[in-house]
Write a structure and sequence with these properties.
This protein is an alpha/beta fold. It has a single domain, classed as Aconitase, domain 4 (Alpha-Beta Barrel). The protein has seven helices and seven strands; from the N terminus they run E-H-H-E-H-E-H-E-H-E-E-E-H-H. The chain has a seven-stranded mixed β-sheet with strand order 4-3-2-1-5-6-7. The longest helix has 10 residues, at about 90-95. It is globular and about 40 Å long.
């Protein structure tokens, strides 16, 4: 069984890529992007994140541009995103970078900030470890799920086909 366990950070609806990775950071070298994640709406958040933590959000997570917001979340230490709905472009970028993104109806009602959750990447479900409640995510094709778990770009970079900065 492939699982991810981490603390939950709650975000609301309509979290767009401008909030995740501001435009001034997106055009900067990758090394300087990490500290800008969510700087507009959660200043001081990045140093609080522990490797393996999870984002739980409402509707419309990742709306906006195709900037590498999913990669920035990985760089901060986020292991998965659980949201009520996710923008398609953000989802494609998450697949490319290997960031699991699960759509769980009413995700923000199922968790409070600080809860710990266990994400089962085989069953495509999330369990709140405080309440014990298990929430089934919207199924995606197995091939897409497997690609999302491993990430296309990290594999291509390891093979020497692309350079990922």
């Amino acid at each position: 069984m492939t699982t991810v366990e981490g603390g939950c950070w709650l975000f609301g609806d309509d979290i767009d890529t401008d909030l995740i990775l501001p435009v001034h950071a997106a055009i900067s070298p990758r090394a300087g992007q990490r500290d800008t994640v969510f700087e507009a709406n959660r200043p001081g958040w990045v140093p609080l994140v522990q490797p393996g933590d999870l984002i739980v959000a409402g509707r419309g997570f990742g709306l906006g541009s195709g900037r590498p917001a999913a990669r920035a979340l990985i760089d901060v230490g986020i292991a998965a995103v659980i949201a009520s709905t996710v923008d398609g472009l953000f989802l494609r970028n998450a697949v490319a970078y290997g960031l699991p993104v699960l759509e769980v109806p009413d995700a923000t009602a199922a968790f409070v900030e600080g809860d710990r959750a266990l994400v089962d990447l085989d069953a495509w479900s999330v369990r709140n470890l405080r309440t014990g409640a298990r929430h089934q995510a919207k199924r995606i094709p197995d091939s897409l799920r497997e690609t999302m778990i491993s990430g296309v770009l990290p594999w291509l970079a390891a093979q020497g086909y692309v350079r990922v900065e």
